């Protein structure tokens, strides 16, 4: 029996701070011990109370740092890594001008194999241990990414993009080929070690009704896969969807009519939803991936956090980078932009709400809260260690506000956490662990 321990200030969530108070949702131990056995959580508690029980086990100490569950990125594009930060366009023009030509390169397995480790290194150096990833339309891109994630033992969800119209010919599959290729990938990868599959029609405009019907068939045949797509990001996109599907009662209804809206569905963006669509997402227990850096970068709009988390119709919510429309792989930077999106609408978005979405909230959105998201006993030990003084300005900021080096109260922690989110990035991530093993260190 091999045990090991990690001593640090430890923060995780036991409930949702959008709906219950911080004292009921935040679990904070200023001097904590996280004990692992075979990569899973065996115990979490006060160091002073537990130390007698674990005399002799190896303990890694992170004084004056903050240990949190690994971050969960609910929506990101593998083939857009090399085109992040492309100038000047909004969604539909940006896709044509920059994204489609770039995604074409992923036809070549050797190129995919070159980019996959770069992409995964970016996730890990930013503290992201689980991501929901769109591949390209080519199955090779999905194989390549799954191979790399499996090598690193990451709990990752990936899908081949299904796209049979309104894209260049070199990037289109057919309804049939998308079905057979997706099915082969599901049979090969879904449930292998920590890997899971998402059926991934790109968005309604690039799929024929036949292709959406095939997507539904895949979900029926493999009911524990996910449905992952884009929804109501940009005004011109929403208008286009209405023209393409004139019988539908709006954008979400297109997916709904094809049986694609359910509790394993993840919809990225949702910045242009109607009230009825918010209600329908709540009713069906579908999840939204909130992508603030992307929504600001493409000028898409402001996500209504308050409406998504309304008490009468709560929607499962997570944070997402959406690289390459998103401008950072960091969920700290993403949370910082989410705060500004809230500010522009006179809404509140607390640092605890932000870190909940990046951890347990994301896990719940994926129905993986029995496996990841916090440090409950038996969960897979994916975690990150943050340095609230990672840069000179952060050191000065936090020195000013904390007499002692480690916050004691939730209030002190909230203060330090907020500035860590707003000023933080990959330099803030001291270490990233996957199943208790170190996979990135500064
Ligand atoms: N909608 C359809 N495809 C995409 C994409 O690649 N990125 C974003 N942000 N929105 C999309
Ligand atoms: Zn996207």
Give a brief outline of the structure.
The chain is of the alpha/beta class and 442 residues long. It has helices at residues 22-25, 47-50, 91-104, 109-125, 139-151, 175-189, 209-221, 235-244, 251-257, 275-284, 292-297, 305-308, 331-343, 351-365, 392-401, 410-423, and strands at residues 3-13, 26-37, 40-46, 59-69, 71-77, 128-134, 157-159, 161-162, 196-201, 226-231, 265-269, 287-290, 316-319, 383-386, 429-434, 437-441. Helices cover 38% and strands 23% of the residues.
Primary descriptors:
9-stranded parallel β-sheet, binds zinc ion, single chain, globular, 442 residues, alpha/beta, 7-stranded mixed β-sheet, binds guanine
What does this molecule look like?
The chain is an alpha/beta fold. The protein is built from 16 helices and 16 strands. It has helices at residues 22-25, 47-50, 91-104, 109-125, 139-151, 175-189, 209-221, 235-244, 251-257, 275-284, 292-297, 305-308, 331-343, 351-365, 392-401, 410-423; strands at residues 3-13, 26-37, 40-46, 59-69, 71-77, 128-134, 157-159, 161-162, 196-201, 226-231, 265-269, 287-290, 316-319, 383-386, 429-434, 437-441. Strands 5, 6, 7, 8, 9, 10, 11, 12 and 13 form a 9-stranded parallel beta sheet that branches. The two termini are 30 Å apart. The mean pLDDT is 97. The chain binds guanine (GUN) and zinc ion. Guanine binds at residues 77, 91, 95, 99, 202-203, 230, 233, 294, 322, 325. The site of guanine has 11 residues, from helix 3.
